[in-house]
Amino acid sequence: MRVRLNLSFPKTHRALARWIVLVFVLSLLLGAAFVLAELHHDCTGENCQICAAVAHTVSFLKAETVSLALPIMHAAWLSAALLAGAVPKQALTETPSLVTLKVKLSD
User: Fold this and answer.
1) What is the pLDDT of residues 63-87, one digit of tens each?
2) Domain count, the chain
3) In terms of residue numbers, what domain contains 33?
């Protein structure tokens, strides 16, 4: 017998999760856009503030993508485990066998 797992979250939790995902996605996209925009700037030399900002943004993006990889992997494994144990809404119609019908087979 399979147990149906019912995961329901309040609307506030779902809205908060959407905001968190939106902030992460925007930080990744805007950081990458900044790096691409300032990639070929007029460098002033050794103490260039733009080069320092680009280096800082690149290190931030690397750290952010690494920190996101583990939760994404865990979410994928959890989703696979939940889908493996999920019960379909439509029950599969089983054809009864002769044994379940207790049919006597005699020639």
Assistant:
1) 877 777 778 888 888 888 877 776 6
2) 1
3) 11-86
